[in-house]
Amino acid sequence: MNALDHYIELRLRYIKDTKNETLSVGRDELADALFCSPRNVKRLLKNMEEEGLISWTPGGGRGKRSSLTFLRPLPEVFPTYFKQLLRQGHIKEATRTLKRDGIPPDIRKSCYQQLMKELSLPQFKLDLNERPLKPTGISTETGSWLYVQSYRGDKESPSH
């Protein structure tokens, strides 16, 4: 997982919090949200801070709560994250993420449209003066669509 993955996890955990609102959070709470050990939280937060996603001030001493500020709003970050998943071919993960609670309806709709565009057959020009084409199979094994051509007879008698 990269910094953006972890940022999305935090944003979905604290969805009601808006950009530049400072939260008081504990290390154990953050470890639970980021699915890691409390020891690893500091490194993950530092990575997100370096990416310009958050501002984080650790609590001073044992039991003190840290301050966490989201610097980028979810509507700005989530579509980028979703497109990144699609580009990497992680269709199932993108779909699961889109179904999660807390995704605002307008973001969900635009990402769903992007997903449908990604899963649709590629557009191509068809010249009816050429040999007739008939789709006979579609493979999604690799996450890409494969158009298979079938010919029967000559140029004047297309198969149906």
UniProtKB/TrEMBL annotation:
InterPro entries: RmlC-like_jellyroll (IPR014710), SgrR_HTH_N (IPR025370), WH_DNA-bd_sf (IPR036390). The keyword RNA-binding does not apply. This is Sugar transport-related sRNA regulator N-term. The keyword Protein biosynthesis does not apply. Keywords: Sugar transport, Transport. It comes from Marininema mesophilum. Residues 7-101 form the Transcriptional regulator SgrR N-terminal HTH domain. Transmembrane segments: none annotated. Pfam families: SgrR_N.
